[in-house]
Amino acid sequence: MxxxxxxxxxxxxxxxxxxxxxxLIYLISLVTVLFSGQWLLAALDRxxxxxxxxxxxxxxxxxxxxxxxxxxxxxxxxxxxxxxMLIISMGMEYExxxxxQHIIDGLKPTEFLMSKLWLIICFATIHLSVVFLVGMxxxxxxxxxxxxxxxxxxxxxxxxxxxxxxxxxxxxCTLTLFIKKTGLSILIFILYFIIIEPxxxxxxxxxxxxxxxxxxxxxxxxxxSEVISFPFxxxxxxxxxxxxxxxxxxxLFFWIFTFCTLSYIKLSRSDIK
Amino acid sequence: xxxxxxxxxxxxxxxxxxxNKLSKHFSGFKAVDQLSLxxxxxxxxxxxxxxxxxxxxxLGMLLGVxxxxxxxxxxxPRNPHSNPNLKIGAILDGPSFYDFxxxxxxxxxxxxxxxxxxxxxxxxxxxxxxxxxQHEKFKNYSLGMKQRLAIANALLADPxxxxxxxxxxxxxxxxxxxxxxxxxxxxxxxxxxLLASHLLDEVQKVCTDYGVLxxxxxxxxxxxxxxxxxxxxxxxxxxxxSILQSICEESDFCQNISFxxxxxxxxxxxDKLSVHDFHTxxxxxxxxxxxxxxxxxxxxxxxxxxxxxx
Lengths: 273, 310
Prior knowledge:
By secondary structure, chain A is an all-alpha fold. Chain A has helices spanning 2-13, 17-46, 66-77, 80-95, 98-105, 109-142, 148-152, 157-179, 182-208, 213-218, 220-225, 246-269.
């Protein structure tokens, strides 16, 4: 069944030009951004900028074990490209009326949902694989300590990144199932992550200060995005969370479960038009 | 199906679809209201109704894309299937395919869903006469070709039932003729067909049974008479009406010859004979017509009467 579902998705997307272009942009951007830290630090070096007395190029951002935390944090933000690809893939089903035709042809709504979930897992796996390869390449190249314990310390950031990507993609999957229009879904997705939720969070903070902190933490974009804390503060001697708080993991899994449930209910209980 | 009744073997038509008080409400509006219907195996059932009468909503419910508000239906009551759609081929609201894929690539996706081997694609493309254009993108197809591709998809799994929703919508006369002959050919292969259309002529020519929907309710259902199916009604006048009457009575292809209240001769002519050929036939027998009018089909008259009555 899973082979059939994956084959079905593959047949659909392998000939879609916009999908191929975005896939190329995505892979190039992901690799480039993850490698670009060293170029940025070298540029800062040339500008004679220092961090508390250290030359930027001396900062161990690509060294084990910090590298996993650093690149996982950065890589998460590039998941917006596969998110847009997923919206395109789902939107075309509504815009061409093919979802309806597939159901008529005998595909069950749950199978359709499974096909998109497999696509999400594929994206998250690709994302994770690229981050792992870049991390290993850079880490082995730039670390003084290449012991097994150094390499695999902080390795837990990788599976967390995987679930963060899954969370973001499930968010857009659910959104597109309700909106049904590619362009509008992309717009709402970007606006929600960049403007709407920060405003909601800001308003809650102004109204209730830290009393509603838990609710602000549970808002979906924040719950998905802030599982991994900003890691670079450690290089200016600020305290950073170099572990994953359980409460944040719970928030992330809560939304993963909620989006799966909402998508299932939407597909199985409402009319497919 | 044959049953043994006191030693006699009787043919009983197997029910293929049983609909019981099916309803669909959209925010208080009754799109389909307590619709009950039974369709027999091998029949070609025409679902007639004006726009907005609930034809597509009914088919949508039967195909599982619209959730009923009430009532139920059962496909293949004698041999229930966990996923009856795999035994049904259907077009609902026109052809729906990926426009960036070719006809063949689109059918490959459908074949995967229907679990049929790729070789079936060649068969159906041949059947709908699209084999030579199979590698062109769907977006470049004409409306008629798109419709034929949709029929090819519907036929892909060799379904027991074919559901066609307005299959000739938007087609030019040539396209209509193509699709109509395709439907006739398919119906002759013994498949059960459910055809929703507002083209009465089409239903009359193709269907064995019909039902009329109005405001979501079925107001009439029954068989289409053989007379209605194969004859055109003509109103005729000439200087020698009695001779015309006897010529018609002697011919093999005329029936139900009578005078209308306005004095014209009403004749039902076998539709194998075109009006032009019939006129030529009369000229050949020395009759010069002063009036020749093809009247509306009987089904159309019946349809209008039913709608008015309700």
